[in-house]
Amino acid sequence: MSFAQILAPLTGGQRDEIVLAGAFAVARSFEAHVVGLFVRPDPVEAMPFYGEGISSAVVQEVMDVSKRATGEASRKARATLVASAERTGVKVLDGTDAAVGPTATFAEVEGAFAEQVTRAAILSDLVVFGPPRETDRSGLSEAFETTLIDIGRPVLLVTQKRAVDFTKVAIAWNGSTASAHAVSAALPLLGRASDVEILVVKRRNADLISTQDVQTYLRRHRVSSTARIVEGGDRPVADVLLAAAADGGAGTLVAGGYGHNRLRELFVTGTTKRVVAQTAIPCFLVH
């Protein structure tokens, strides 16, 4: 089990460097291929609605400005990929040519951002996103959510606060199907970690969740692990997990995303949303 194809959605912004750094870190570990995907919006669909009375010349001018801005963003995204690849020893390929070692290609498509990203995610082993922000381009948060929920692909959320590091990995464990899926999907990373710690949040007046089964499962895959019980008190579970993982020196937190089947409501109110918004360490999420 491994990661062979990694998708890195690019926007031409500053965070492309963070996303590519995370994608290339995984690619180097697994000699995988990274597809840096830039989505060029359809100029017609991207046009705002002006109503009647607007001349065709004005409409054309607005479309031309939009095309120039998109072209500049595309050039920046490509340049960032090439520069990042050069710094990290990743070979940039043209087209679909194969090569030994970690490689990357720049791909550009036209259409709705979320639709094109999720279409590419279907045949990707891992999709790398930066933490969503309110100022993100249209469709980025939707692409993250759809990739995680509807497409069901593993997502690596990276952060500018800390580089991706798989030396020590923490697992958020609550015995749910979502957390079990996250563990099995993360086996390639866990197999390369020198230290794996399973974190269980203890809630007041709640039964303690056992880690025996998951530790046995990991041993079957030749992964040694330790377990730590963390007192949750009245704090949100996400806050407890993130603090515990960081305090334990973990470089990555593995967690099940949207585990209670409330789907999109959890993106607004649930534990996963808080992890996405507050994470200071990379998070490997699986629905």
Q: Could you tell me the radius of gyration in angstroms?
A: 20 Å
Provide the CATH topology of the largest domain: Rossmann fold
- The DSSP helix count reads 11
Q: Tell me the quaternary state.
A: single chain
Query: How do the strands line up in the largest sheet?
Result: 3-4-2-1-5-6-11-10-7-8-9
What would the principal axes of the Cα set say about the shape?
globular
N-to-C CA distance: 19 Å
Q: Report the major sheet.
A: 11 strands, mixed
- Overall mean pLDDT score? 83
Q: What is the string of SSEs from the N terminus onward?
A: EHEHHEEHEHEEHHEHEHEHHE
What is the CATH domain class of the largest domain? Alpha Beta
Proportion of residues in extended strands: 15-25%
Number of separate domains = 2
Q: Give the low-pLDDT segments.
A: 259-269
Give the helix/strand class: alpha/beta
**Superfamily (CATH H level) name of the largest domain:** HUPs
Instruction: Say how many strands there are.
Output: 11
Percent helix among the residues?
40-55%
Instruction: Just name the CATH architecture of the largest domain.
Output: 3-Layer(aba) Sandwich
